[in-house]
Specification:
The protein is an alpha+beta fold. About 45% of the residues lie in helices and about 10% in strands.
Length: about 450
């Protein structure tokens, strides 16, 4: 059995190298105080296992060394000669993989530097990151928790949990979003929560297609674990302790008592599954960082689905947890088998399809995505347009106060927002609404 201290030290050497064979060998020889013939093949095997991939954790490299047959044989053969001649204690540094080398993320190489960047003390940073899971502990009262929780019933019979960070934590998350996450590019197929993209850009590629396949991801945000977020940050080059702290700030583990005393009925088995899912550290729906992180964590899934779509002459776009595929004759012939392949890819990427929401829409029916119709051109639903037009007409005839049946605090802004939505989708159609808007007399 290799010496544990020797294995741990060699793992640090491999992690701190410049991802080249010669660099790894030079640092290994420096640590051992002499040259070893078995070191070069070992470094090559390590680089083959990890180069170009997510930066591994220290414990993963330790396990790699313990399972490596060549290293084990060398330890047995030279057990009396192998020793640490020089401790290599270089400070950790940014090590992005080749694909992320151009990302303009801030260089943060230690936990102390991260605390300074966020304007926190080290103890405060540990508190907000909550890597020990104090948030979900029964001992933590409402005042000590970093999130506020609201549970809503879905029409499907399930529940939606909104986890809203308290002001100081939200401020930290917004800083991470603005100066770190938004510097990392998302896949071209992602349209939700991306600057310059919208539901219009999500739906536009599917206009006039022979067949449209719409699929939905089940429990999108809680399916993305803290470990996955931390792996993303290591890919960006952050040392393991820094990535762990950043991942902790952006994720949460929900306390069990949140699910007690619900005001509506939920199937006990379903509630138990949801409670267990949310109890694990996950992306909270309600945190400003969650949509951006979700898009970044979906990059490989988006790449695979886009490639699968191209193979049958289809196009693919995604808006948060809504997936859309469309094409013509070739795609229509293979659509059943195609949807099965999509479900398999989703499973391999750590997600699950909500099969109850899967829809195959051909030209003979209304093809609809995120409330927009895409049969002939991008358009709003006729019933929505007619309802808004009738409301504006009645505002002209009877006054706007008579139409505010939902008691909106600012009815004028509400109506203008709905008109603006139609203008974004179909400017020509919106002109009729603007003419009515200009005739309304506001008190």
């Amino acid at each position: 059995m290799p010496n544990s201290l020797l294995v741990a030290s060699l793992a640090r050497v491999l992690l701190s190298g410049e991802q080249t064979v010669e660099q790894g060998i030079a640092r290994g020889n420096l640590m051992f105080g002499r040259r070893w013939r078995w070191l070069r093949p070992l470094v090559k095997r390590y680089l083959k296992a990890y180069v170009g991939r997510t930066r591994p954790r220290h414990r993963d490299v330790v396990q790699f060394l313990l399972k490596d047959g060549g290293f084990s044989r060398a330890c047995r053969k030279y057990s009396n000669e192998l020793s640490i001649a020089q401790w290599l204690t270089e400070p950790p540094k940014m090590q992005p993989i080749a694909a992320s080398d151009t990302w303009a993320v801030p260089a943060i190489e230690s936990v102390t530097s991260l605390a300074e960047w966020l304007g926190l003390g080290t103890t405060e940073l540990q508190w907000f990151a909550d890597l020990k899971g104090l948030e979900r502990s029964k001992k933590s009262g409402q005042q000590l928790r970093q999130y506020r929780y609201r549970v809503f019933a879905k029409r499907s019979g399930s529940v939606r949990l909104i986890e809203s960070p308290k002001p100081r934590l939200k401020e930290l998350q917004r800083q991470i979003l603005a100066f770190l996450l938004e510097q990392i590019p998302v896949h071209p197929a992602a349209h939700g929560f991306c600057k310059g993209r919208s539901i219009s850009t999500f739906a536009a590629p599917h206009v006039g297609r022979r067949v449209l396949l719409r699929m939905d991801l089940r429990e999108f945000f809680p399916s993305i674990s803290r470990a996955r977020v931390q792996a993303l940050l290591r890919t960006a080059g952050y040392p393991e302790p820094v990535a762990d702290m950043l991942g902790g700030i952006c994720t949460n583990a929900t306390p069990r008592d949140v699910w007690e005393g619900l005001a509506f009925y939920v199937d006990p088995l379903q509630l138990r599954e949801i409670r267990d899912l949310y109890r694990q550290p996950h992306l909270p729906q309600g945190a400003p960082t969650s949509p951006a992180i979700a898009n970044l964590c979906c990059y490989r899934m988006d790449s695979r689905l886009a490639g699968l779509a191209r193979s049958v002459g289809a196009v693919y776009t995604r808006y948060a947890d809504d997936l859309a595929f469309s094409g013509h004759e070739e795609f229509e012939r293979s659509i059943d088998r195609f949807s099965t392949h999509v479900a398999v890819i989703l499973h391999e990427e750590g997600f699950a399809a909500n099969h109850h929401k899967t829809r195959i829409m051909r030209r003979g029916v209304r093809q609809q995505l995120t409330g927009l119709v895409v049969n002939q051109r991008l358009n709003v639903k006729r019933v929505d347009f007619d309802r808004l037009k009738a409301t504006l007409t009645n505002c002209v005839r009877l006054g706007p106060e008579s139409q505010n049946r939902e008691a909106y605090p600012n009815f004028r802004e509400h109506l203008e927002g709905r008109i603006g939505f139609v203008e974004m989708v179909n400017p020509d159609k919106a002109m009729r609404l603007r003419k009515l808007w200009d005739q309304i007399v506001w008190q």
